[in-house]
């Protein structure tokens, strides 16, 4: 029983870290999108290609991303409160990490190269996000397995 408490504490720490990490992305994207655009020099005039339009990136787009990250933080907060009883929230957190990491991988490996985007900092940032997302997925699944929680079953008994 003592080891289960240890693994549950670790899982809750991971989920709490994700709450604050996602809030650190959501809040600036929601309330200061123009600052983020200027900071990152996200001007699509620098990128040539059919999938990008000319002109600056819209603040509304970044606000939409902020809402997505805010929802992720909220779901992970729900999971943090009691992962054993809220396995659906843990599953949603896993799905969010997987889709986020996969989209970032597609963007870095294919989309940005297709339009010949040359800023290497963006590739490194996306690479760190991809590695971090997949690492967090592995850690969360390992902790759920150690806790003997049947996280892959939706509904029914969780233990």
Write a structural description.
With 159 residues, the protein is mainly alpha-helical. It has one domain (2-146). The protein is 73% helix and 0% strand. The chain has five helices and no strands. The chain has helices at residues 2-31, 33-40, 59-81, 87-114, 120-146. α1 (2-31) runs antiparallel to α3, α3 (59-81) runs antiparallel to α4 (87-114) and α4 (87-114) runs antiparallel to α5. It is globular. The two termini are 14 Å apart. The model is unreliable at 47-52 (pLDDT under 50).
Summarize the structure.
With 159 residues, the protein is mainly α.
Radius of gyration: 18 Å
Terminal Cα span: 14 Å
How much is the average pLDDT? 82
Low-confidence stretches: 47-52
- Percent strand equals under 5%
Write the layout of secondary structure elements.
Blueprint lengths: L1 H30 L1 H8 L18 H23 L5 H28 L5 H27 L13
Helix pairs in contact: 1-3, 1-5, 3-4, 4-5
């Amino acid at each position: 029983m003592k080891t289960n408490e240890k693994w549950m504490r670790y899982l809750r720490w991971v989920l709490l870290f994700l709450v604050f990490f996602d809030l650190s992305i959501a809040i600036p994207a929601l309330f200061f999108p123009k600052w983020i655009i200027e900071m990152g020099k996200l001007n699509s005039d620098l990128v040539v290609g059919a999938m990008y339009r000319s002109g600056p990136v819209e603040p509304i787009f970044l606000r939409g991303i902020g809402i997505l990250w805010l929802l992720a933080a909220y779901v992970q907060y729900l999971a943090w409160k009691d992962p054993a009883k809220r396995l659906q929230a843990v599953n949603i957190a896993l799905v969010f990490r997987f889709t986020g990491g996969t989209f970032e991988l597609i963007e870095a490996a294919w989309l940005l190269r297709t339009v010949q985007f040359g800023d290497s900092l963006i590739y490194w940032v996306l690479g760190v996000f991809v590695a971090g997302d997949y690492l967090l997925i592995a850690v969360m699944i390992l902790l759920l397995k150690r806790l003997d929680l049947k996280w892959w079953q939706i509904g029914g008994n969780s233990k």
